[in-house]
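Hi support team,

I've been running sequence recovery on a batch of backbones for a student project. Most finish fine, but this one hangs at about 90% for roughly twenty minutes before it completes. I'm not sure whether the input is malformed or the queue is just slow. I've pasted the structure tokens below so you can try to reproduce it. Let me know if you need the job ID as well.

Thanks,
M.K.
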């Protein structure tokens, strides 16, 4: 029995979103009572839980009406069986039984999962991959992450960290990455890299990836070129993944992918030139159908496993 009304909790590295998801027959999802809170990266377990409970209570008041279950996405390594937040790369959080805390408070079924895995799953349940059992989801925002659905199930790898496509090395002696490496896709193609590349080209620092996208749509050559380069690097990484996995699709989500139109051509070109073409003729490169609220879809989708 799949729940129809789900309290969706999207915990990010710097923000928290909650909403009540109503799932109609046919899988159409609508959200009500959206609440957004900034989260301080220094927050520990108690502060995050307190912020999340307050936001949930506000959502439930605004959305008025009951709910059947809770879905939670976590920015870090998760144990989906127990709903434990095992590790967060940006904070001191370790072994945080977040699902158990929600179960205790609301006395409802609770599911929790890593945010990127959950986004991939949401694409399978509600988005572009409803008919597809083997695909890779790549989020391109302030960082780059990957989630894999293989054989109709989330594939986690032996240690829970499969599909770290953000750390594919796409440039020799490239930019330093948060992981300690150099030339990682994340360091070369995420939002901050788009800003950096644009600054190197134009001398204008501090322009966001979104502003650069706006300039590209106005026809500015440097902005267009930055997005072309970004697509080229994403295509290189996507081809490495396709040659390994032979997926039916690779789906791009995250803030930068809202500008998919600006890098689609260079992405496709590089991808088609790098893959073993006979084996991957029918692989499709798609933009997410979940839009900028992917995190809320992701949280809700966890009750559909
Ligand atoms: Zn890296």
């Amino acid at each position: 029995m799949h729940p129809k009304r789900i309290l969706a909790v999207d915990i990010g590295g710097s923000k928290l979103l909650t909403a009540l998801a109503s799932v109609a027959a046919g899988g159409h999802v609508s959200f009500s009572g959206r609440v957004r809170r900034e989260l301080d990266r220094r927050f520990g377990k108690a502060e995050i839980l307190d912020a999340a409970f307050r936001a949930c209570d506000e959502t439930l008041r605004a959305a008025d009406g009951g709910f059947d279950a809770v879905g939670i996405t976590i920015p870090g390594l998760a144990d989906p069986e127990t709903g434990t937040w095992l590790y967060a790369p940006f904070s001191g959080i370790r072994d945080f039984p977040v699902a158990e805390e929600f179960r205790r408070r609301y006395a409802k079924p609770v599911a929790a999962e890593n945010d990127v895995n959950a986004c991939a799953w949401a694409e399978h349940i509600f988005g572009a991959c409803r008919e597809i059992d083997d695909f890779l989801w790549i989020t391109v925002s302030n960082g780059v992450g990957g989630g894999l659905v293989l054989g109709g199930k989330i594939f986690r790898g032996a240690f829970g960290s499969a599909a770290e496509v953000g750390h594919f090395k796409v440039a020799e002696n490239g930019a330093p990455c948060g992981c300690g490496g150099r030339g990682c896709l994340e360091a070369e193609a995420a939002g901050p890299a788009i800003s950096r590349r644009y600054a190197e080209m134009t001398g204008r620092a501090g322009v966001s990836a979104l502003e650069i996208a706006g300039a590209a749509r106005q026809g500015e050559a440097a902005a267009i070129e930055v997005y072309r380069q970004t697509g080229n690097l994403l295509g290189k990484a996507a081809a490495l993944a396709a040659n390994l996995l032979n997926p039916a699709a690779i789906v791009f989500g995250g803030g930068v992918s809202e500008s998919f139109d600006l890098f689609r051509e260079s992405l496709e070109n590089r991808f088609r030139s790098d893959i073993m073409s006979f084996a991957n003729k029918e692989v499709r490169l798609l933009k997410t159908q979940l839009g900028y609220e992917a995190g809320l879809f992701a949280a809700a989708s966890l009750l559909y496993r």
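--
Follow-up from support: It reproduced on our side and the slowdown came from queue contention, not your input. The chain has nine helices and 13 strands. No action needed from you.
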